[in-house]
Amino acid sequence: MKKEKKENKDVRNYGFTGILMDTVSIVVTSIALLTIVFTFGFRMVGVDGDSMLDTLQTDDYVLVTPYYTAPQYGDIAICTKETAARGALVKRVIGVAGDVVDIREDDSVYVNGVKLDETYARTLNTHGKGDREYPVTVPDGCVMLMGDNREVSWDSRYTSIGFIEMDHLLGKAQLRLNADWNIYKNFTHDATKD
Length: 194
Description:
By secondary structure, the chain is of the alpha+beta class. Helices cover about 15% and strands about 25% of the residues.
């Protein structure tokens, strides 16, 4: 006796209803995946303003990943704290919880008694900007942020911005995409290392 070979037939309905259901399924799955990626993975944040010149410029975009570990010196962090500034703040981490930050009359910034090597800073006009008295200790659960263009940066030197709580950090900038579509990877700097 000869066994009959059964053919596997696709029994889906390929009429209008079937195509519509497939399309809806693809769209819903895509939206769910994008939501997960952008919630737990990364985000793109646009830069607006001159406070991070020459490192970042208006119309640059930065790829931001959440902080899974503590912020480090030199990270470019994105802050979502509501301030007088428009939108998210994009600034550099200068001090972390427990650090003693001192800005001296010669515009030098010291953290825990060590002078920062701030080759990234466009202007070192740091002393006398803001309304904070120095030295100051960064509170627990907070970071101190400053822009690279100190002359115009609205940052933690002003008590209206203040120290930034970790809950208000969207994450760390990992990549920079400029207006000419050039991608830069290593644009952060740890000023505490020689």
